[in-house]
Amino acid sequence: MKVVILGSRGQIGEPLKDHLIERGHDVVGIDLLDGPENDLRIHNNTYVEEAIKNSDFVFFLAFDLGGSQYLKKYQDTFEFIDNNCSMMVNVFSILKRYEKKFVFASSQMSNMSYSSYGVSKRMGELYTHALNGRVTKIWNVYGIEKDPEKMHVINDFIRKGFEEKTFNMLTNGEEEREFLYVSDCCDVLEIIMNEYDNIDTEDPLHITSFESTTIKDLAKIIENKFKNHGINGVQIFPVDSKDTVQMDAKNKPDSFITKWWKPKVSLEDGIEKIFNEMKSNYLEVK
């Protein structure tokens, strides 16, 4: 199958591209990091339009987003809102023009009306429903990240552990998240593509581990990783502050997708994979 991945250099897009190529698919990646011709914000972008036109399936993963620090700093800025709205207007117009089968990567935050990011994702869901595409609500997928400014909590804690040893969290750590390792996310996205016409629901498909962990407990797991690898002195401290990004909102995922797929990688094992790769990178630098 000829597949286009919009956002092919992102945390999910890059491993998904490798995953699908390994499975024998013909994959075209579109990402701004690969050059200005890949800019989804540009109206009438012929390079992007030709790629989608000649595809069998499209994964719309591209979005201006990052972890809690990034969202807290940027999600209410004009540039953040404009970037995401421009991408959606252009991409959904092309998908409509060529009536392509596609998946839009939304978020479990799409019902949080106080979040500019959540509202943007909700708009993407409405576009997707209007075009009979598939909405996936992706819950806290983690893998290797390369941009420190956009890092989500697992990568950020490990990075700070190597660089700072002792550091404060952004919150008291009482908020809960459901973390899913990126290889599990790639598996289910391929299944959704392959079973596109057989999945008998128009509701969003929730992609998550279905296991909740507090950020405080996550910090303990990461502290122990450093100890287990003989790196002592790493301590992560909560602060007297509540989560201001999700406002302690607690959504409950729909388990419908588990008819076709179940996650395989535990949080402990996933963190170990991330830790080992980041450790090797830091040792190479030294």
The H/E string reads EHEHEHHEHEEHEEEHEEHEH
Low-pLDDT runs of 5+ residues are: none
> In angstroms, what is the radius of gyration?
19 Å
- The order of strands across the largest sheet is 2-1-3-4-5-10
Query: Quick one: how many beta strands?
Result: 12
Using the coordinates above, name the CATH class: Alpha Beta
DSSP helix count?
9
Query: What's the CATH topology label?
Result: Rossmann fold
- Average pLDDT number: 93
User: What is the CATH superfamily classification?
Assistant: NAD(P)-binding Rossmann-like Domain
CATH architecture call: 3-Layer(aba) Sandwich
Structural class by SSE content: alpha/beta
What composes the largest sheet?
A: 6 strands, parallel
Overall 3D form: globular
The helix content is: 40-55%
Number of domains: 1
Distance between the termini: 43 Å
What share of residues are in beta strands?
15-25%
What does this 3D model show about the protein?
With 286 residues, the chain is α/β, with parallel strands linked by helices. It has a single domain (2-285), classed as Rossmann fold. 42% of the residues lie in helices and 16% in strands. It contains nine helices and twelve strands. The chain has helices at residues 13-22, 46-53, 68-74, 78-98, 116-130, 153-164, 182-194, 215-228, 267-285, and strands at 2-6, 26-30, 57-60, 101-107, 134-138, 141-142, 166-168, 176-178, 180-181, 205-207, 212-214, 235-237. A six-stranded parallel sheet has the order 2-1-3-4-5-10, sandwiched between helices. The protein has a two-stranded parallel sheet with strand order 6-9. Strands 7-12 form a two-stranded parallel ribbon. The longest helix has 21 residues, at 78-98. The mean pLDDT is 93.
